[in-house]
Amino acid sequence: MKKTPSYEELAQMHTALLEKRKAERIAIRELIGNIGHEIRTPLNGMLGYSNIIKDQLGPLLTQKHTGYLNHIIDAGNRLMDRVSDLFEYYDATSEELVPYFQHLLRQDLKKEWMAKYLPRASAKGLLFDIRIDPEIPSHLKLDGGKVSRILGQLLGNSLKFTQKGSVILEIQLPQNPLLLLFKVIDTGKGLSVDERDHLFQHDVTAVSSYNKESDGCGLGAAVAMTLVRLLGGEIWVEHTSEKGTCVCFTTPFQAVTQEEEKDAALATLDTVSDSGALNILLAEDDEMNQKTVYYFLRKLNHIVALAKNGREVLELLEARSFDVILMDIKMPVMTGVETTMHIRRSSNAYKDIPIIAMTAYARIEDSQMFKKVGMDDHVIKPLDFKIVMDKIQKVLNRKEREGI
Question: Are the CB atoms for 358 and 286 separated by under 8 Å?
């Protein structure tokens, strides 16, 4: 006769099961991160070389061949968008994801979002504007990363489905003084009652009805809903009498003390100004990506030294001085994270050198980890070189103000 397990044995079995599930979640998370890296890395090369061809041969190409090249670049960008949708959905439904409040400036958020969405709207002949209630504090603590991802999904949908008219983002203070109310208002085709009812479901087949007339995975609204709820807010579709859609969500923010505001006052000086030619140490093991990044940095008249792994980075730092390091994360011999930790813990003159992660790891927890090990910022592959140079200059400006 089979022995009935004791309470202590049942407790041990339960603990073992929980540990097994935890290990499985960690393994899946690492697998997802590696898959994302292995997709983004060749995409960065493909788009990089396509843009090099366009840059070098553009004037010599016929209109037909220029069109072919633009289709390749557009297809690569669309593939990147689909990959991002899938990984953001996984991210949003991950049990490990937690709110991460940062001290932010209202004007910086508006500038960032205008720079990201205005070109897309202008390309379609749409009006795009961000209207912020002046009563909202100029300094606030907000999970800017997740709010940006929520807006990325909602504004992305509005820009996709609106063929003429406008897409407006309004940010208001509702009656609750520690909540922000975001409204994404467009003049698109609008939603039926059934579409409104199913818009925020996790069921992909239900959500995808919103996307049948356009490309996409149908995950955007579900990602937005999950992130909003994670932050402790609510999301809904507001009824509109006219054609169009108004999607609203709330998210909490935290007040900033006068002392914190004083400490952050210098952030208003963090503007992008040209420092001229820079000495840049480029750490990248993938030859294809190394060549594309090298090409665009040299085109901007910067001096570039190459390293294929972390050990080579340390050897170059011992031999000469640099203004900044662009650090790949996944490298042989010594990873970008290990190299950064070694640099920050050293007593050498280069221990405070600006380090910007240049990575295909795009999850929220990755960016948080980069900051914890001492990286100053990060850029996601496929690279936008305007963003790369803006981030380099901002980091250099900040280091100069801090006297480093």
Answer: no
- Identify whether the C-beta of residue 347 lies closer than 8 Å to the C-beta of residue 302: no
This prediction has a pTM of 0.64
Ordered per-residue pLDDT tens for the chain, 404 residues: 567 777 676 677 767 776 776 676 667 767 777 777 788 888 888 888 898 898 888 888 888 998 899 899 888 888 887 777 777 777 666 656 677 788 888 888 898 899 889 988 998 899 999 999 998 988 888 888 889 889 988 998 899 889 999 999 999 998 877 899 999 999 988 877 777 777 776 544 334 444 445 455 566 787 888 889 888 999 998 866 567 889 999 999 987 777 766 665 554 444 444 557 899 999 999 888 899 999 999 998 999 999 999 999 999 999 999 999 999 998 999 999 999 999 999 999 899 999 999 987 767 677 788 888 999 998 888 788 888 888 888 888 877 766 65
**Token pair belonging to 326:** 């662009």
Taking the C-alpha atoms of residue 307 and residue 284, their distance in angstroms, rounded to an integer, is 6
Please state, in angstroms and rounded to a whole number, the distance separating the CA atoms of residues 293 and 287.
Answer: 10
Task: Tell me the C-alpha distance between 123 and 58, whole Å.
Answer: 20
Per DSSP bridges, beta strands 102-105 and 139-142 are: antiparallel
Quickly list DSSP for 184-227. EEE-SS---HHHHHHTT-S-HHHHGGGGTTS-S-S-HHHHHHHH
